[in-house]
Write a structure and sequence with these properties.
By secondary structure, the protein is of the alpha+beta class. It folds into three domains: about 5-110, protoporphyrinogen ix oxidase, domain 3; about 135-195 and about 325-369, FAD/NAD(P)-binding domain (3-Layer(bba) Sandwich), CATH 3.50.50.60; about 200-300, Polyamine Oxidase, Chain A, domain 2 (Alpha-Beta Complex). The protein has helices at about 5-10, 15-20, 35-45, 45-60, 70-75, 75-85, 90-100, 120-130, 175-180, 185-195, 235-240, 270-285, 310-320, 340-369; strands at about 140-145, 150-155, 160-165, 170, 200-210, 220, 235, 250-255, 290-300, 325-330. Helix 3 (about 35-45) runs antiparallel to helix 4 (about 45-60), helix 6 (about 75-85) packs across helix 7 (about 90-100) and helix 10 (about 185-195) packs antiparallel against helix 13. The relative contact order is 0.12.
C-alpha cells in the first residue's frame, strides 16, 4: 500500500519489482482496441505481476481470464491511463491531483457498505416503492415496431398480451435481450447472443471459529491460476461486515469455475464441492467439517468483455440510434458490478427522461398547431 511495503513484500521477486519500476519508460500500444488485459499488463508490468496480481484479480472481479478480456472494455480506466497520460504511474499521479482539485474520492479510499440483512434488501425496497407498477410473471417474448411506437409482446400463463409504448428500457441479460430483439435487428442479435457468460458455483460454508488455524484478518483471498487449485478464491464474510457470523461461527463464500475453470463442471458436482472444501480447509488450516454447506450454481454468471468487445458496444449504440425510444442496459454494458449498474442507471434515467420530455414537447406543439 506504500513504496516501503512494495520493496519489502515477499509477494514478488526482486526481478519482478525492478520490472514493475520500469513501467514509466514503456511506450504506448499501437493496437489498444484489440488488446487483452494480459497483453497490456505483460507489456507494461511484466509476466510475474500478471501471474500473481492481475490473474487472480481478474478472476475475482469477472470470474474471467485476462488472456481473453479486452483491456479497453473490461478495464477502461486502466486503458485510459495509458492513452491519456502515457503510462500507469504517470496517470495515477496526475489523476490523483485532478481528483483532489475536484474533491473526488478514488475507489480505493471510498467506503464499502452492504445491508444488514443482505443485498436482497435493495431489490425488495425497489419493489416496494414501485408497488403495482410492476407486472409480475409476464414473460417478454418479443418487441415489435409499430410506426412511432413499440409493441411489447408478453406471455402470461400461455396467453399472449401486447403493451404499446413509446419507450422501452431493457435490462435483461444480453442473451435474453438478443432473443427479444432478434426480429428487429439481426446484427444486434449476433453480437448480443455471442457474449460469453461462464458458469460459476457459489459455495457458502460455515465453520466453528475454534477450529480455524488462520486468523481472519482480511477480506479473503484470490488464487493465481499457476497454483492449480480447484477454486478461484474465498471471501471471509464476517471479517468484512458485522452480523455475517458471531463469536462461535465464521461464514465464508467460495467461488468456483468461471472462464478460467469452466470445464470443472464436467465432473460430478458433489465431487467438485468435496475437492474445493478439502483444498479450502487445507489453506485455512481447518480441523473440522463445515457446520453448514449451501450453494448456488449459475450456469451463466458474469458477461465477459472479451477482445473485440468494442464491436458489440458499437452494435448496441447503432441500434439505439436507429430505434429511438429503445434503451439497452444491464451489466454487459458499462461495467459488471452492482456499483457500476447503479451509476449507469442514473445515466440511463437521464437519457430516458430526456426522450420522454422531448416526445411530450413534440406532441404539445402538434396540439397547439
Amino acid at each position: 500500500m506504500n513504496p516501503k511495503d512494495f520493496i519489502t513484500t515477499k509477494l514478488f521477486s526482486s526481478k519482478a519489482k525492478i520490472r514493475i519500476l520500469m513501467e514509466p519508460f514503456i511506450g504506448k500500444s499501437k493496437d489498444g482496441y484489440y488488446q487483452s488485459v494480459a497483453e497490456f499488463v505483460r507489456r507494461r508490468l511484466g509476466q510475474e505481476f500478471l501471474d500473481y496480481a492481475i490473474n487472480p484479480f481478474v478472476s475475482g472481479v469477472f470470474a474471467g481470464d485476462p488472456e481473453n478480456l479486452s483491456v479497453k472494455s473490461a478495464f477502461p480506466k486502466l486503458y485510459r491511463l495509458e492513452e491519456v497520460y502515457g503510462g500507469l504511474f504517470k496517470g495515477m499521479i496526475k489523476g490523483a491531483k485532478e481528483r483532489k482539485k475536484r474533491a473526488e474520492k478514488s475507489k480505493q479510499s471510498a467506503a464499502m457498505f452492504s445491508f444488514k440483512n443482505g443485498m436482497s434488501v435493495f431489490t425488495k425496497k425497489l419493489c416496494d416503492v414501485l408497488g403495482n407498477d410492476i407486472l409480475l410473471n409476464h414473460r417478454v417474448e418479443e418487441i415489435k415496431k409499430d410506426n412511432q411506437n413499440y409493441v411489447v409482446v408478453t406471455n402470461v400463463n400461455g396467453e399472449k398480451k401486447e403493451i404499446k409504448t413509446q419507450s422501452v428500457f431493457i435490462t435483461t441479460p444480453a442473451y435474453v435481450a438478443a432473443e427479444i430483439l432478434k426480429n428487429m435487428d439481426g446484427y444486434l442479435f449476433n453480437q448480443l447472443s455471442t457474449i460469453y457468460y461462464p458458469p460459476v458455483l457459489v459455495l457458502n460454508v460455515i465453520y466453528r471459529k475454534d477450529k480455524l488455524g488462520q486468523v481472519l484478518d482480511g477480506f479473503g483471498f484470490l488464487i493465481p491460476e499457476k497454483e492449480k487449485k480447484s477454486f478461484l478464491g474465498a471471501i471471509w464474510n464476517d471479517s468484512i461486515f458485522p452480523n455475517r457470523g458471531d463469536e462461535n461461527f465464521a461464514s465464508f463464500t467460495i467461488f468456483v469455475g468461471g472462464a478460467r475453470q469452466s470445464k470443472i463442471f464436467e465432473n460430478d458436482l458433489n465431487e467438485v464441492i468435496n475437492q474445493v472444501l478439502s483444498e479450502f480447509e487445507q489453506i485455512m488450516k481447518i480441523q473440522s467439517q463445515p457446520e453448514s454447506i449451501k450453494y448456488k450454481f449459475w450456469e451463466k454468471a458474469i458477461p465477459q468483455y472479451s477482445i473485440g468487445y468494442v464491436e458489440k458496444e458499437f452494435a448496441i449504440n447503432t441500434f439505439e440510434q436507429r430505434n429511438r425510444g429503445i434503451f439497452l442496459g444491464g451489466n454487459y454494458r458499462g461495467g459488471i458490478s452492482i456499483g457500476d449498474c447503479i451509476k449507469n442507471s442514473e445515466i440511463h434515467f437521464e437519457r430516458l427522461s430526456n426522450f420522454v420530455r422531448n416526445n411530450l414537447f413534440i406532441e404539445y406543439r402538434r396540439e397547439i398547431n
